[in-house]
Specification:
Length: about 130
């Protein structure tokens, strides 16, 4: 529950602050899949937090566990560089009916998940979560 509140606050802050075209970071397309025990994880929120300065990127998984990230507009991907990654329920209400994602994955400091976004290419990542 705390992780869901964190995501809502982080996303709201990011949207409110935004970036203008002149100060927007260089981004690269990022897509991928999230599975748990080898099965696609639908209804999950995937958030990339840059380890250096810059905005976060977010996306939600579909029924096949697939996601595409956005930073400033749909499909623009994530800022180039290294990211800590958090994965949680896309909506707090889904916790009761959606996937039971362990709380450790909901915070970038405890998830143990990282990703490198490289410029000039489509970055494809896969995250296999353990219950």
């Amino acid at each position: 529950m705390a992780s869901a509140r964190f995501f809502i606050l982080a996303i709201s802050t990011s949207l409110l602050l935004g970036c203008t075209a002149s100060d927007a970071p260089k981004t690269a397309p990022v897509s991928g899949t999230v599975t748990m025990d080898g099965k696609p994880l639908a209804g999950a929120s995937v958030t990339f937090f840059p380890t250096s300065k810059g905005p976060m990127a977010t996306g939600n998984t579909n029924e096949k566990g697939e996601f595409t990230l956005m930073t400033n507009h749909p499909g623009d991907g994530a800022p180039v560089g290294t990211h800590r990654v958090a994965i949680g329920n896309a909506e707090e209400g889904r916790r009761r009916s959606g996937p039971n994602i362990p709380d450790r994955y909901g915070q970038p400091g405890t998830s143990g998940l990282t990703a490198e976004v490289k410029p000039g290419q489509k970055n494809v990542v896969r995250f296999e979560l353990k219950p």
